[in-house]
Amino acid sequence: MKIAVAGTGYVGLSLAVLLSQHNEVTA
Q: The dihedral of CA 10, 12, 25, 4: what is its sign?
């Protein structure tokens, strides 16, 4: 699963970090 993170703020960033533990994250 690829997750795109753009302009999500602190909450989005935290969520991206948690998700990145199991998924590929594209910032």
A: negative
Residues, the chain:
27
Residue 15 dihedral angles phi and psi, to the nearest 5°: -65, -40
Structure tokens that stand for 14 in this block: 């935290």
pTM greater than the 0.70 cutoff: no
Residue 25 DSSP class: E
Kind and range of the H or E element at 16?
helix 9-20
Confidence at residue 20, expressed as pLDDT on a 0 to 100 scale: 74
| Token digits of residue 25 | 């994250």
Domain boundaries, the chain: 1-26
